[in-house]
Specification:
- The complex is a heterodimer of chains A (233) and B (265).
- By secondary structure, chain A is mainly alpha-helical.
- Chain A has a single domain, classed as Methane Monooxygenase Hydroxylase, Chain G, domain 1 (Up-down Bundle), CATH 1.20.58.220.
- In chain A, α1 packs parallel to α3, α4 packs antiparallel against α6 and α5 packs antiparallel against α7.
- Chain B has 265 residues and is of the alpha/beta class.
- Chain B has one domain: Rossmann fold (3-Layer(aba) Sandwich).
- Chain B is 34% helix and 25% strand.
- In chain B, α3 crosses α4, α3 runs parallel beside α6 and α4 crosses α6.
- The longest helix of chain B is centred in the middle third of the chain and has 14 residues.
- The radius of gyration of chain B is 18 Å and the shape is globular.
- The chains are: A mainly alpha (233), B alpha/beta (265).
- The complex binds adenosine-5'-triphosphate and magnesium ion (MG).
- The site of adenosine-5'-triphosphate has 14 residues of chain B, from β2 and α1.
């Protein structure tokens, strides 16, 4: 699209978009680091993730303030308006995802004090990687304004849901077999649930990309895979 | 969720008050309006937007035959008011303009008193029976135009002695005094401060309960606020016409988007 006549408008829009991308990078790293800290029982790394969340929160606040300023000063319309709204919603989704990463780090510190649950941290980390790739694809789709890619991310939400459901069943089995694992499995279950929630936020960002480009949200309900009645939140 | 929507934005009716078909306007050899077809809805506010010189005022003037007064101006095509051709020889332009009132881009009060400026229309069209009724129409019209408080003590003073913004509001009062069915407003707020602007917008909102209002404005925010339908003109063409919400959030034509979002088009 052509430049605005008021060039400061373009600079403002570019600035908030750069900030949201930076935020996305921080959140992806926090999730991967937290999952790695869990698997490797790395306290230092887990602490880093915990402390790092403040930077993500600060970026979100900055983005929301800047977007409010753009709305007040420039009264954006059409694509400009949708861009600002999308950036605000993306920032909110990323902030929540950052909180989940921080929570994962906290719980991993607790889990490090308990005996390991066979295979679980590895499975959690695989799930985290899947979710992070979904998140980064959603952010790429945003940068490229690529509706097809966004739709693809949206379809992949099932993958994470399936991973979550499988883990849920696995933890249930462990707990039934050996009640001493209940405490650890409860923490692991919350972790898995939170990662699954990040997947929902990635899907939400993908839907925002579709809104940004098409001017409306996709009409169909996204496919939901949830074979277990217990797993509804 | 649906009942939570901002209902005041919805259009009450889909009935066309004015129907324009294949309208062309020429000033000598200049083709100023090219093939414009549009339905102006009843009980709704329609905004005309577009860059300076694109033909908004020209098209607006077609709707009450004001272009007849410009010798080099030639209008072709069909313009129907309630289904009747306004350019039919049997239509009296003066009667037409009482039904289709107009507020001009440049305030043009008559060289008469403030009172007489507003009283003129109701008098010549015989809308009042006595002085008391006329006083009432003058007062309510000036109140609607948000001018009453400033002029109530000097109604006999000449209209031309008012400030630019006051003159603009006097012209609005003059236009609403005849209770027109359609009110055409060409940048009615261009010389008004924010308070008077808000009052005129409030008036427009009141008027659309019973009338059809067309407003030309260079303020995108004003168009978005006051209208339910928006028409975007560019180089004499009607580029896009649709629901105001759609035009300002998700326009179809790239030229509309460029214009409303302040880009070089
Ligand atoms: N009386 C006239 N005689 C000759 N040409 C005219 C006359 N009035 C308008 N035009 C021409 O017709 C075109 C459309 O003018 P018009 O006044 O309708 O534009 P507009 O959209 O109302 O612009 P603005 O926003 O500046 O008021 C312009 O090119 C203008 O020069
Ligand atoms: Mg004009």
């Amino acid at each position: 699209m052509e430049q605005h006549i008021v060039s400061a408008f373009d600079r403002d829009l570019e600035a908030v978009q750069a900030q949201v991308m930076k935020m996305g990078g921080l959140v992806e790293k926090a999730l991967l680091d937290a999952a790695e800290a869990l698997e490797r029982r790395d306290e230092v790394l887990a602490e880093q993730v915990r402390a790092g969340d403040a930077a993500i929160d600060a970026l979100e606040e900055l983005i929301q303030t800047d977007c409010a300023r753009v709305i007040a000063l420039r009264a954006p319309t059409a694509t400009d308006l949708r861009t600002v709204l999308t950036v605000m919603r993306m920032a909110a989704a990323l902030e929540r995802s950052g909180d989940y990463a921080k929570n994962l780090a906290k719980r991993s510190l607790v889990l490090m004090q308990m005996s390991p649950v066979n295979g679980a941290p590895g499975a959690v980390r695989r799930m985290a990687k899947t979710v992070v790739s979904q998140l980064s694809d959603a952010l790429d789709a945003y940068i490229a304004r690529d509706v097809e890619k966004a739709k693809e991310v949206r379809r992949r939400d099932q993958e994470v849901d399936q991973m979550y459901n499988a883990l849920f069943r696995q933890f249930l089995t462990y707990m039934l077999e050996d009640p001493r694992t209940i405490s650890a499995c409860m923490h692991l279950h919350f972790i898995a649930k939170n990662i699954e929630r990040v997947g929902d936020h990635a899907t939400g960002i993908a839907e925002q990309v579709i809104y940004l480009v098409d001017g409306q949200l996709p009409a169909d309900d996204r496919p939901k895979f949830d074979s277990l009645g217990e797993s509804v939140d | 969720m649906n009942d939570m929507r901002i209902t005041e934005r919805t259009v009450q009716t889909n009935q066309a008050k004015i129907t324009a078909r294949d309208v062309q306007v020429y000033y000598g050899d200049t083709h100023a309006i090219k093939d414009v077809s549009v339905d102006i809805l009843d009980k709704a506010v329609t905004a005309f937007i577009g860059p300076s010189g694109c033909g908004k005022s020209t098209f607006l003037r077609c709707l009450n035959r004001m272009n007849d007064t410009i010798p080099i101006c030639r209008v072709e095509g069909k313009i129907l008011l309630d289904g009747e051709d306004i350019r039919d020889v049997r239509v009296d332009p003066v009667q037409l303009r009482a039904k289709v009132g107009m507020v001009f881009q440049k305030p043009n009060p008559f060289p008469k008193s403030i009172y007489d400026n507003v009283a003129y229309g109701p008098r010549i069209h015989g809308l009042v029976r006595n002085k008391a009724e006329l006083d009432e129409v003058v007062e309510s019209s000036l109140k609607k135009a948000a001018l009453w408080n400033e002029v109530k003590d000097r109604l006999a003073a000449p209209g031309t002695g008012l400030s630019g913004g006051q003159q603009q509001r006097l012209c609005i009062a003059r236009a609403v005094a005849t209770s027109p069915e359609v009110l055409l407003m060409d940048e009615p707020c261009s010389a008004l401060d924010p308070i008077a602007t808000a009052q005129v917008e409030e008036l427009i909102d009141e008027l659309r309960a019973n009338f059809s209002v067309v407003i030309v404005t260079h303020s995108m925010q004003q168009a978005a606020r006051v209208s339910q339908k928006t028409a975007f003109f560019h180089l004499g063409n009607l580029v896009e016409y649709g629901d105001t919400t759609t035009i300002f959030t998700n326009p179809v034509d790239p030229r509309t988007e460029s214009y409303i979002s302040g880009r070089i088009g």
